[in-house]
What does this fold into?
Amino acid sequence: MSNRVVIQIAGQELVLLVDEDVQYLNKVAAFVDQKVGQVVSETRMSLLNATMLTCMNIADEYFKAMDQAENLRRQLKEYIEESAKSKTELAELKKETGKGKKDSQ
It folds into this structure.
């Protein structure tokens, strides 16, 4: 079921039909509104240019976050592989140690 949501970004009203939770969408709109307002106040750009620059900034943050997440996944995979290897080596050492004890009895 689609929700009809009215959001405001930089004083501009936008009506959306969305399947997302209304509170979530308002949170996203508030974030974008804050970012656009920050760019406008810092640069004195037109609203259109400030909005485009804000889109670029948000996309930049997104891609950097995705790269960081991928690096963390890669590191985690390496740690899991190292852990599995160490576990296997420990099991083999335990077998050898247990076998050595039985032979000496």
